From TrEMBL:
Residue ranges of the region described as Disordered: 1-25
InterPro entries for this protein: EF-hand-dom_pair, Pyrophosphatase, Pyrophosphatase_sf
Source taxon at top rank: Eukaryota
Any GO CC annotation of this UniProt entry: cytoplasm
Transmembrane regions: none
Required co-factors: Mg(2+)
GO term, biological process aspect, one: phosphate-containing compound metabolic process
Family: Belongs to the PPase family.
GO molecular function: inorganic diphosphate phosphatase activity; magnesium ion binding
Keyword line: Hydrolase, Magnesium, Metal-binding
Name of the protein in its database record: inorganic diphosphatase
Phylogenetic classification of the source organism: Eukaryota, Discoba, Euglenozoa, Kinetoplastea, Metakinetoplastina
Enzyme kind, highest EC tier: hydrolase
Xref: SUPFAM superfamilies: EF-hand, Inorganic pyrophosphatase
Length: 414
């Protein structure tokens, strides 16, 4: 199923509540969309029974992943992975080839270099080339995913012409809340109507000239492109796939299970700034390095954005969060089309019009990992929000780091 932003593309989408209601009523989830929530790979996996805890509690597996504070147990994860493995075994032979196992790993969002793939195939490859699920599962458990290790994809359209907001087209591919779901970006030629895939990270400019036509400027105004990954009042953990070609947006997947923020829904639109990167080799405040990702942004306006929506925002300030020993800036901003944007000139104006907003942002990021056994986050500057001028400096520096990352890529593949 392909949808395009600009029309109401959500009217036929299955929500977590719809999935739960269907199973409580005794209807198979496949009756709603014909795809399994754990794999997104078609009807073969649909016939598999859900995990027992979902049956006992009369909820969907998606609800277990999204709303239960406890993580899935190993037996639960193994059952989900077994169903996904079977979905790739389209000929029902009971095994996969090493090349197909590589496809499974990449489908699950596991970033693997060429060396990683070669080592994996050498370890699991039998003489006859048959990889059973038990062999795959043993390898998977013995090689846990390290979320901090990333292989970036720098593929971009590399346009020399100015970027026009009118040209940007956003398509959705696959079913939401499955590993196959992607938000893809294209530039449409206004004369021919042809579309060319682009990277939201590399091709959408950071600085906005105006709300219709945008391109980088030597002295930018306070107008930046913001890419929404997680709409306000939702908790599914969508993110720009920095390791995939053209960097689409996808839901983070762990062991075949879609990831959700167990602490609760986001109270704002959460996303990132394009053409930025927090370098792991640069020392920031509090003596920590960057988190190896684009700069995060918190849009505090009244409108709920869509996953992947690109909007022009005004930067107001920044919170310096320290996550697992790495700097993870959270830039506070507001859409230029929001009714109160005109009244907010700096971070100090936010409490006047949105009382408690800044305290709620800081507290959410401080405690959101605790409910799953994690530790509370720490902050630079004793949790103080720095002003607009400081935030714009952070963004500009991250833009320069992104440029350096691109230069490194041109000298050799990362």
């Amino acid at each position: 199923m392909n949808n395009t932003h600009g029309v109401d593309s959500r009217s036929d989408r299955t929500s977590p509540q719809d999935l739960a209601s269907a199973e409580v009523a005794g209807l198979p989830v496949s009756a709603l969309h014909g795809t399994n929530i754990s794999t997104g790979r078609g009807s073969e996996a649909d016939v598999a029974e859900p995990i027992q805890e979902a049956v006992d509690r009369k909820v969907s597996e998606l609800d277990l992943a999204a709303y239960d504070k406890d993580d899935f147990t190993q037996p639960m994860i193994k059952k989900i992975m077994s169903r996904l493995f079977s979905a790739f075994d389209v000929t029902h032979l009971g095994y996969l080839t090493p090349d197909k196992v590589e496809e499974v790993c990449r489908y699950l969002g596991r970033n693997m270099s060429d060396g990683d793939v070669k080592a994996m195939k050498a370890e699991i490859n039998a003489i006859d080339g048959h990889v059973t699920f038990e062999k795959f599962w043993a390898w998977w458990c013995s090689h846990p995913v390290h979320s901090r290790t990333k292989c970036f994809s720098m593929v971009s359209a590399d346009f020399s012409m100015p970027y026009h907001q009118q040209q940007l087209v956003v398509h959705e591919k696959g079913e939401m809340y499955t590993p196959s779901y992607r938000v893809l970006y294209f530039f449409r030629d206004l004369e021919t109507g042809r579309e060319r895939q682009v990277s939201p990270w590399h091709d959408i400019p950071l600085y906005v000239r105006d709300l219709v036509r945008t391109k980088p400027e030597a002295t930018p105004m306070n107008r930046y492109n913001f890419i929404c990954e997680i709409p306000k009042w939702t908790r599914a953990k969508f993110e720009i796939a920095t390791g995939e070609s053209f960097n689409p947006i996808k839901q983070d997947i762990k062991n075949g299970v879609p990831r959700f923020y167990k602490h609760g829904d986001m109270m704002w639109n959460y996303g990132a700034f394009p053409q930025t990167w927090e370098s792991t080799e640069v020392l920031f405040e509090a003596g920590v390095t960057g988190d190896n990702d684009p700069v995060d942004a918190v849009e505090i306006g009244m409108t709920q954005f869509k996953v992947g929506q690109v909007s022009a925002v005004k930067v107001l300030g920044v919170l310096g969060m320290i996550d697992e020993g790495e700097m993870d800036w959270k830039v506070v901003c507001i859409s230029h089309s929001d009714p109160i944007c005109h009244f907010l000139r700096d971070i100090h104006d936010v409490p006047k019009f949105l009382p408690g907003c800044l305290d709620a942002i800081r507290e959410w990021f401080r405690v959101y990992k605790i409910c799953q056994g994690g530790e509370a986050s720490h902050f630079a500057f004793d949790g103080e929000f720095k002003d607009k001028e400081y935030a714009m400096k952070v963004i500009d520096e991250a833009h320069n780091m992104w440029h350096n990352l691109r230069k490194v890529n041109k000298r050799g593949e990362l």
